[in-house]
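Appendix B. Raw example, untouched.
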Amino acid sequence: MSPKDLLLALVVIIVWGMNFVVIKIGLDDIPPMLLGALRFMLAAFPAILFIKRPQMPLRWLLAYGATISLGQFAFLFSAMKVGMPAGLASLVLQSQAFFTLFFAALFLGERLRATNLIGLLIAAGGLVLIGMQGDRSMTLAGFVLTICAASMWALGNIVTRKVGKVNLVGLVVWGSLIPPIPFFFLSWLLEGPQVIESALRGFGLSSMLVLIYLAFGATILGYSLWSRLLSRYPANTVAPFSLLVPVVGLTSAALLLDEHLGLLQAIGALLVMLGLMINVGGGWLAGRLRTAFGGSPA
């Protein structure tokens, strides 16, 4: 990878890692469902005027918007509102990688490799340890909702695989058209007109900066740069960079929000990261070992 593209990869990781701190700050002034509606409304407009709609059936575009956009962030924003710390959210959300493996086997008939199963078991053990230490820093409801968010992200990944090669930026922008109306309805239903009115009346510079970051930074800029990298390099070269997202998320939350992990949570976090590393690079390492000992790399 060229130095320029390496820098772009690091920009994406920092933007996505910091995303969780920004969400936490935004939820101080804007309720979760309203924040989701405003985020995706801003991500869709005016970008759809300049970015072509991806060539895919409408039903798959609706499915993508309903899962990876509406479902994921309805659960994630709610989780962080009811007690999921920003740093741990950035880590637990990465369990989407294992949900994706499960759903791919279930719906697409893809086979699980031994390294996938090993990584899954290690990461699952880490998640159990994290979930066991629910105290003031993390509620059980927040943890469960974050797991639900990860499963919705994984379903969105399956939709993306089903539609094949499409422009990722176009998919994200046009997929952002789907969530605003359901989010506004959920906000009216769950948060109420008075809460919505109060949030909009108190809408200030901080809230605007949060929305700009979420819509243009984490969504459009992040996915634009990520799709550029995926178009220029093999997926197994780009994918490992995603392991740095929870590192940035945990570090930024500790520095900016004074979040700190308990002992079990810290051990669990290390196990989740180890599981993710085995899942991403285990196949390559196993192939190298087989080659080194005279076997077939396949």
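End of appendix B.
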